[in-house]
Amino acid sequence: MTFQGFPDAGLVFYEGLEADNSKTYWTRHKAVYEEQVRAPLQAMLDELAGEFGPAKVFRPYRDVRFSNDKTPYKTHQGAVVAREGSGVGAWYVQISAEGLLVAGGAWRLESDQVDRFRRGVADGVQGARLLDELGTLSAAGYGIEGDRLTRVPKGFDVDDARAALLRHKSLHASRRWDPADWLHDRRALDEVRAAWRAFGPLNRWLADNVGATTRDARRR
What we know:
By secondary structure, this protein is of the alpha+beta class. It has a single domain, classed as 2-Layer Sandwich (BirA Bifunctional Protein, domain 2). The protein is built from six helices and six strands; from the N terminus they run ααββββααβαβα. It has a six-stranded antiparallel beta sheet with strand order 1-2-3-4-6-5. The termini are far apart.
């Protein structure tokens, strides 16, 4: 299947799901989800796989075990690409009634990865490299986000710009587009590809300076 855009019916499906997040609605409209949401997203990912690698398409069901919100279904469909061997740094895409979202970077870092991230930021060469890459993304319209401490961790002597980065416990960039006619054609693929390419330097910095966690999986 060649990607031809995200059909408007898929966005309308999510509008309905936001209004009626129930098994009854889901069962009645499951074919719409499969044909108008999941199928075009998979077609897009198949076209991107040669450059970025295979993607994981997330399940549409929410994990409600530890949440006060017991609505059973996600009101968006997301997918992520994480290259094997890089340890950290990924590409993300999401479609919903709110439009199209793209993101890249690291959404969670283990404690040993946070330590290496801070050392990289504090390094004169690598810290400056990261600042340049984030500045390029910001100038291109991407938001720079991530979980942060309220204060700069002790023991670092850096300039103000890198001090702000030291507060991060995760780091990623993103951009969202509201629903528009071009979402229904191949421009959506072009926009995702361009954004994912833009995230490449950030992901390379994370792979070079942070890498995979060395923590025992049983201790996470």
